[in-house]
């Protein structure tokens, strides 16, 4: 049987990347990362409930450079996702939907998430 050429839908690769498109994808990616991060938080709570020795062992892993990298990433993911959520809340009021405004909000999300994460880590980790 011969295969007929059928119309195909545009593939992701043919679209020109826009900042709003990247933020949309990042919002879902950070949502998924938040699940993994919350699992780490639950593991930490369980370790605390199990006693001082278990907690000390887990804190040793979390305090390693790799543990700190993961926790820093989780903090950024939470903050980025939260700002993305607030962006959606603003859109729910039908504001900031015009061209230019959408891009401003997208850049504010990415810059704001990095700045807020650095502030949180400075206050609660590095200067604590
Ligand atoms: C640990 C906490 C959180 C987890 C695990 C989480 C997880 C997720 C995931 C997986 C999605 C993607 C759903 C999809 O695209 O099909 C999502 C979407 C969403 N999240 Fe979260 N989220 C968390 C916290 C938050 C917070 C704090 C806010 C608001 C400040 C928020 C607001 C939203 C909104 C508005 C959407 C829908 C975005 C859209 O319609 O495209 N989330 N969340």
TrEMBL record:
Q: Which UniProt keywords apply?
A: Heme, Iron, Membrane, Metal-binding, Transmembrane, Transmembrane helix
Q: Which CDD domains match?
A: SQR_TypeC_SdhC (cd03499)
Q: Which terms in the Gene Ontology molecular function aspect does this entry carry?
A: electron transfer activity; metal ion binding
Which Gene3D superfamilies does the UniProt record give?
A: Fumarate reductase/succinate dehydrogenase, transmembrane subunit
Question: In the record's cofactor note, how is the cofactor described as bound?
Answer: The heme is bound between the two transmembrane subunits.
Q: How does it assemble?
A: Part of an enzyme complex containing four subunits: a flavoprotein, an iron-sulfur protein, plus two membrane-anchoring proteins, SdhC and SdhD. The complex can form homotrimers.
* Functional description taken from the UniProt entry: Membrane-anchoring subunit of succinate dehydrogenase (SDH).
This chain belongs to which protein, by name? Succinate dehydrogenase cytochrome b556 subunit
This chain's source organism reads Devosia equisanguinis
Higher taxonomy: Bacteria, Pseudomonadati, Pseudomonadota, Alphaproteobacteria, Hyphomicrobiales
Give the gene name.
sdhC
